[in-house]
Amino acid sequence: MMATTLPPETASAPDLIAIAAHELRTPLTVVAALAQILERDVQKQLRRGAPAANEWLDEQQVLLAKMHELGLATVRLKTLAEELLMLRGTEAGCQMATDLRVLIETLLSDYRLLAGEHPLRLRADEHPCLVWVNPTRIEQVVRNLVDNALAYSPTGGTVDLSVRSSAEAVELTVHDEGCGIPTDQLEAIFMPFYRGTNSTELEISGSGLGLYVSARIVQAHHGQIWAESVPMHGSTFFVRLPRYELRQFSSGCGTVEAL
Ligand code: ADP
Fold first, then answer.
1. Which of 237, 120, 234 is nearest to 171 (CA)?
2. What is the pTM for the complete model shown?
3. How many CB atoms lie under 10 A from the CB of residue 212?
4. Which residues approach ligand 1 with their CB closer than 6 A?
């Protein structure tokens, strides 16, 4: 089992724009090429006139397959555009005292409706696991980790989450029984647009931005994120945030007296 720490601040804004433009170019080229091919095919058929019935069926099937590919390429573009938008919101923003255990319990009740062959379990401390965070951003981190745990376990398996608080920190873990991550890629997976070899081998779609965005959010909250993995047996992602324990706290929109 190998641990990795988050690499220091990785890409600057101009770097990211250059990488994003490069990433967008591939699916855009596919979309443009397929649209051109479809137009040419239909024009050819129009010039030629109505074919025999059996040819017509074959032709329609070929056209349908190309349209399907076009649809997939546009979905990839849409996903990429959405993930690029996430890059805007990695600063902590409006923070408040948040019980990480409650945040995750609420999130998991949504996931359980969708998770299918993946039982989702949560082990958590009985007492509140308070952190001072922007709950929307931290929820995004948890979602990224759970989405990955599900996606990279294509044959099923339990996804185990835990939330524990110690004197100094609250630690969240997300463990899956999926394909695992090659040891030499454990650091690179937090780089912008990096996709591991497992994603291509298992044909799992994605943009390589989820963990980068998660790492930026965690850093903005003065926390750490890292991964451990046993290739072929699963992965565990760790997020550690400073524990919040004060008698009085600001709710972000006013001051609230704690009990
Ligand atoms: P994406 O999933 O879109 O490729 P991420 O930034 O979320 O982008 O993840 C980067 C890479 O890290 C993935 O391409 C994959 O190789 C690896 N990875 C992330 N989570 C897991 C996981 N739970 N199990 C195995 N590999 C993972």
1. 237
2. 0.78
3. 26
4. 144, 148-149, 152, 176, 178-181, 189, 194-196, 198-199, 206-212, 235
